[in-house]
Amino acid sequence: MSSLRARWRPAVAVAACAGLALVGAGTATAAPQATPELPDQLADKVTLGQMNRHLNALQRIAHIHDGNRASSTEGYDASAEYIATKLEHAGFDVTRQEFPFTYSETLAENLTVDGADMPVTVMVYSPSTEEGGLTAPLAVIPVDDTPGCEASDYGDVTGKIALVQRGTCSFGEKTLAAAEAGAEALLVYNNEEGPVNGTLGEKNDGYVPVGGVSQADGEALAALDGTEITLELRSLMEDRTTYNVIAETQTGRKDNVVMAGAHLDSTPDGAGINDNGTGSVALLETALALGSEPDINNTVRFAWWGAEEFGLVGSTYYVNSLSFEQQLDIALYLNFDMIGSPNAGYFVYDGDDSDGEGTGPGPYGSAQIEAAFVDYLENTVGVPTEGRDFDGRSDYGEFIAVGIPSGGLFTGAEVEKTKEQAAKWGGQVGEPFDPCYHQACDHMGNVDRVALDRNADAMAYVVGKYALSTEEVNGVAPSSVKDNAELAKQRAGQMRMITQSAQGDAALV
Questions:
Q1: Sorting pLDDT into bands at 50, 70 and 90, what band is 198?
Q2: How many domains does the chain have?
Q3: How far is CA 372 from CA 262, 390, 446, 486, in A?
């Protein structure tokens, strides 16, 4: 090799490296070249076998930690570290976000009417009665368009236990109204088949003890106005801390994030394998199948929420910890809470309120999210779907409250399956979608694995779809369309600079 070549080649190499560095610096937010096959590829990669392995892990964690995985317990911490460690090993940026909450554990739930026991469920954050309960006349509150939402609905119920139908306003609002009217305690009965399992959202000194009963039992009680009943509702409450696990890809634009979440915690009563091990493991497998550095246009952020069972605390804390600009960076939120119920239905959150029930439509873009799930389940999987109202019972709540388009999947909880639903989905008529909801029997035998597999595929497909483009949801076109054109122009200009520099060096030599 001549001395001329030896001196010229390093100059070209240095210039070329400098040019490539400039390209990278000038397009730091540009997305990699994304493959349009990504949604189908993701759905194929998410396998039932791997999800079942993760469910077994959660079951064993619960077994060796007092039978549950409730937030702030060793069982929850072990579950969270199981998830976080796998994500870290896969190269994800993982955050453990700690937050405070009020832990609540049931000590007694007893309702006696005419000498017979009737099932009742204490609501989370309900104050306790004295041990042994309280005995008082039952005051049946008439049903109207807003049952029990205002103190005037109750009349004078001083010293009585009020009975009101569920609906329109929150359990907390009903409880405060009943207390204002003088009630000693409150019973809320369901406005659809099945029992009531609810939360008051937070501690409040204005609350009276409150429990939930089924629609059938509530209607039976409604015929016993003035009858003395005995109600005992007691729970342990104390301030604790727990944490969310949040992971996101290292690729994709950071100002148009696709977010997907599932709560990881169980109730203190059981292992929570369907509620919500199913959503958690499907989300984990979707993340691992996607990988930490995929060729995508939009960053994907995954979240495993803590303290959902105590009033959506983890997800609410997360959303409220973000500035308005940080909230604006989230293009949409997808929620997966119970997607393998043993008597499964196939529910998609009703983003456009086409069913006309409950709270109305989600923020703009929610209808498009609903359509994406419906299209995949009905046209690819071949299973019919039904809408599910945004009733505030899962972690989409605070996202919707700040205007973030939301959607997701659900296979049913304590509500009973109708004859029409059984005709199209199979299963048991008149039985709850999940007969072990919030019970010790929510274990590995409490999962419909066909439903889990189908819903996990839908999850993976829709996550992949929006990782490529959220244009139908929020009007943001894939950044690669514009950025790749700009990248090509920059690269062409820089190559001219490299050539000119090299030629100049050669001339000097």
A1: confident
A2: 3
A3: 19, 17, 28, 31
